[in-house]
Design brief:
The complex is a heterotrimer of chains A (439), B (341) and C (65). Chain A starts with 10 loop residues before the first helix and ends in a 7-residue tail after the last helix. Chain A is 71% helix and 6% strand. Chain A is mostly helical and 439 residues long. Chain B has a domain at 8-201 and 323-340. In chain B, strand 1 and strand 2 form a beta hairpin. In chain B, helix 1 (2-32) packs antiparallel against helix 3 and helix 1 crosses helix 7 (156-184). Chain C has 65 residues and is mainly alpha-helical. Chain C has a domain at 3-46. Helices cover 69% and strands 0% of the residues of chain C. The chains are: A mainly alpha (439), B mainly alpha (341), C mainly alpha (65). Chains in contact: A-B, A-C. Chains A and B meet through helix 2, helix 3 and helix 13 of A and helix 3, helix 4, helix 5 and helix 13 of B.
Chain lengths: 439, 341, 65
């Protein structure tokens, strides 16, 4: 294995560039994951009731789905380029182990692109049944595409599927690498996150409409359908988060220690909620005794490894990890409460919550869900540092020696700002266009 | 053996991208050169109508190529990325702009917005194929690996390859669009694109002929490969394909013309791969040296087979629905009537 | 509460229990399946045409489900 002893001067910029691209791409992916199911749900309501309101909603949504998918594809293309441009050593050393996953992912979203085109352009051209059926591959491809990409990330956090003989790769088993021990919880966690982000963002649009006095069936449907999905997805996400944390406790103890900011290995470790982490201590939080051991190992006296168990050069930036984790859990809790509010009103009183605060909370929930999403990814990816392949290759060993990184980074920032502004501007205008309900 | 099969897969993917993605880029070129708002409105309207259902699908081939490269030929991929990051980064940014502009153009409500998005779309449609073509040219003329990040892709062969990529794409696009116009019954546009196709063919022919001298001087190893043995055969096939396409264009045989045009492009790419045998990176890495271990190659081939088994019928469905007009949207001239929408 | 809703919540609750209490692979697989099934069933039980269909909800009549 090649060890590069010279540190690339632009390592930080390269990492920020990668993080930026991921931060732009992943929220878009949420729409590829979750929106198709909601669109089909709306179409299903139309087919069931014959009410053109649902058809108009499904058509409007499928238009938005296509735009966001297209932007997702191009941002994803950039990511593929960046993997090679920024981390050529990583790709060179390990590409043959995990690369197949990307090939399979490529096929998945190729299929998704095809069927989104058929679905969006096939309204009223295909028979109603054929049209709805053409939406199903979109849903499936959304699952498989994310599964394969997450397979790679899971592998980076827990490298499996190969042997190292004298520092050289041997006995590479790409399928074992892809179906590693992390992929399952990461996939389910991300899949649900997709529904939370997409669901609350879409609901937020219609919540705003409702606050503006638009209470017709079209806008009610636009509000209720996504809320119906997130109602149980939010609590489910907490349960899956618990699963994820327990897997991290097993496979990446240093990362878990960083979640909490746990300095010393402790039996019966407590969990500190809130507070600010500075220089090895958390100030101002509320410590709940034994909770960390219990959550991580289902044993309140279990031994939790601390940060000091590994040399300092092997520890991630703890403040970033801990704060992101707290943000994610905090927002997640808020979303569960909001979902519960909706559920209780719906199930016990047969109506939407009466308070205007509910609608305001829903409007806030969309952007907050994105913040939680990114905080979660920061937690796991920064928590993986200093490793790009956990325990085997450091990020600094993987990075390119190219000169123009700061220029590239600056360019990318400008590009994304322009793209983001344009997308938001045009989608907002689309949102203001009255629904095209046929008679 | 496995490495050869994967290389074949790579060439197939690259050809598919050169033909389908190239035609997409070429459409952008015609958008750019369609003329002023009024004069070019009908041309632009047809371009949008033709591209809408298929453009995203067309571009996924690029990811396919990248992924196979980094999975199955990792040292070559790393070397290419190390050396050619400038054109590749420009291409990546161009792809973002292009995709975004195209997707959002449908929502433009004023002439100004439509034209701004259109200009971004069209300019990047020329920049991206040029940079990607130059990248391929750089690899073929033995410029990788190199420390000279600027010089590696600005030698004569690379620039020629870049120009050829743009012109070929324009040619393909014109052929495809003429067929689309025929299907839509828009005779004026059939004539417009026929003119363009013939024009592009002339330029492509001139570049090819001039290119002979350029490659001979700039990259003699490549020249030798293309003028002897299997490489030469590919060049001949490409030339025949090109001539056949021109004949078909003049006669109005659009469906067949699509096919012969694709053969012409594919043959050039196969010719280049064949010309540099047994090297993957000429003068630096042979195919065997660049290839990953057998287990990875085999898994890739199996995955590709499984993926293609699902993908190809799906793609065929999309193209069939498109070509039979099922997915056709209404034809709207753009730039003129846009403001009224 | 309607049967649909009860069913959805029951399946969901089973999933939660399996995920939190047990640790085996099979418990996880079944647990996740129950959670996902619960979410889907729940969506159908919640977003019914009847509930959505209120044209003017100033009255906000409780809806018999």
């Amino acid at each position: 294995m090649v060890m590069r002893m010279d540190i690339q001067p632009y390592l930080l910029e390269a990492r920020q560039m990668q993080a930026l691209s991921l931060g732009v791409h992943i929220p878009l992916v949420c729409f590829g994951i979750a929106f198709p199911a909601m669109v089909l749900f709306a179409e299903g309501l139309w087919l069931r009731t014959g009410d053109p309101t649902y058809k108009a909603l499904a058509r409007r949504w499928s238009k938005v789905m296509m735009i966001l998918f297209a932007v997702g594809v191009v941002t994803g293309t950039i990511l593929s380029f960046e993997l090679g441009l920024l981390w050529p050593r990583f790709m060179e050393e390990w590409g043959e182990v995990f690369g197949v996953a990307f090939a399979l992912e490529g096929f998945s979203f190729f299929i998704e692109a095809i069927f989104i085109a058929i679905y969006v352009y096939g309204w009223d051209r295909l028979s109603p049944r054929a049209h709805m059926l053409s939406g199903i591959p979109i849903v499936i491809a959304g699952i498989t595409g994310s599964a394969f990409v997450i397979g790679v990330n899971g592998w980076m956090n827990n490298p499996e599927g190969f042997d190292l003989v004298d520092g050289e790769l041997a006995n590479v088993r790409p399928m074992a690498a892809l179906f590693n021990s992390n992929v399952w919880h990461e996939l389910v966690h991300m899949y649900l996150a997709g529904f939370l982000v997409c669901g609350f963002l879409v609901a937020g649009v219609y919540a705003m409409a409702r606050m503006g006095g638009r209470r017709d069936r079209y806008h009610r449907a636009g509000l209720i359908i996504p809320l119906a999905f997130v109602a149980l997805a939010a609590p489910a996400q907490v349960v899956v988060g618990d699963w994820a944390a327990r897997t991290v406790a097993e496979n990446q103890p240093t990362k878990l220690a960083a979640f909490e900011g746990l300095e010393e290995t402790t039996a019966g470790a407590g969990l500190t909620v809130g507070g600010i982490y500075l220089g090895g201590k958390t100030y101002g939080g509320v410590e709940i005794p034994k909770l960390l051991s219990f959550l991580a190992f289902h044993d309140p006296d279990a031994r939790v490894e601390g940060l000091t168990a590994v040399p300092e050069s092997d520890r991630p930036p703890v403040a970033v990890v801990r704060n992101s984790f707290q943000v994610m859990v905090g927002i997640g809790t808020f979303l569960v409460a909001l979902a519960a509010w909706f559920l209780v009103a719906r199930l016990r009183h047969g109506r939407l919550p009466a308070s205007a605060w509910f609608l305001r909370a829903v409007v806030a929930a969309g952007p907050l869900a994105i913040v939680a999403l990114i905080a979660g990814w920061i937690t796991t990816e920064v928590g993986r540092q200093p490793w790009i392949v956990y325990g085997l290759m450091r990020t600094e060993e993987a990075v390119t020696g190219a000169d123009g990184i700061p220029v590239g980074f600056a360019t990318l920032i400008v590009v994304y700002l322009a793209l983001g502004a344009t997308v938001l501007y045009l989608l907002r205008r689309l949102a203001r266009t009255p629904p095209e309900v046929e008679d | 053996m496995a490495a050869d099969l994967v290389l074949a897969l790579l060439i197939v993917g690259l050809t598919a991208y050169a033909v389908l993605g190239g035609a997409d880029f070429g459409a952008g070129f015609w958008d750019l050169t369609a003329g002023g708002a009024k004069g070019g409105a009908r041309v632009r309207g047809l371009i949008k109508r033709s591209m809408s259902p298929v453009w995203e699908a067309n571009h996924v081939w690029l990811i396919f190529v990248l992924v196979i490269l980094w999975t199955c030929f990792p040292p070559a991929f790393a070397a290419i990325m190390d050396t050619l990051y400038v054109p590749l980064f420009i291409a990546a940014v161009g792809i973002i702009f292009r995709g975004g502009a195209f997707a959002l153009r449908g929502e433009a409500a004023t002439i100004g917005e439509a034209r701004a998005l259109g200009a971004i779309f069209a300019t990047s449609s020329v920049l991206v194929p040029f940079c990607l073509g130059a990248t391929v040219g750089a690899v073929a003329s033995g410029q990788v690996p190199s420390d000279d990040a600027l010089g590696a892709w600005t030698n004569a062969t690379s620039l020629l390859a870049g120009a050829m990529a743009v012109v070929t794409g324009a040619f393909l696009a014109a052929v495809f669009m003429a067929g689309d116009a025929r299907r839509a019954g828009l005779d004026d546009l059939v004539r417009a694109f026929r003119r363009r196709a013939l024009g592009a063919a002339v330029v492509a022919g001139a570049l090819a002929l001039g290119g002979i001298a350029i490659v001979n001087a700039d990259a003699p190893a490549l020249y030798d490969g293309l003028t002897s043995g299997a490489g030469f055969a590919c060049v001949i096939v490409s030339g025949l394909g090109g001539l056949a396409t021109i004949g078909l264009v003049r006669a109005g045989g659009w469906s067949s013309a699509r096919f012969t045009a694709s053969v012409a492009v594919g043959a050039v790419l196969i010719g280049m791969a064949v010309a540099q045998r047994p090297d993957f990176l000429p003068g630096e890495l042979t195919l065997e040296e660049a290839a990953a271990g057998d287990s990875t190659l085999v898994v890739t081939l199996i995955s590709a087979a499984a993926g293609l088994a699902i993908l190809l019928p799906s793609l065929a469905l999309l193209f069939r629905l498109t070509l039979t007009g099922t997915l056709d949207q209404e034809f709207h001239p753009i730039g003129d009537e846009e403001a009224k929408r | 509460m309607s049967r649909n809703v009860t069913g959805a919540l029951a399946v969901f609750g089973l999933g939660v229990a399996l995920m939190l209490i047990l640790d085996s692979t099979w418990a996880r697989i079944t647990g996740v399946a129950c959670l996902l099934a619960g979410i889907v069933l729940g969506a159908f039980a919640i977003a019914t045409p009847g509930f959505i269909g209120e044209l003017d909800d100033a009255s906000e009549r409780p809806h018999a489900e």
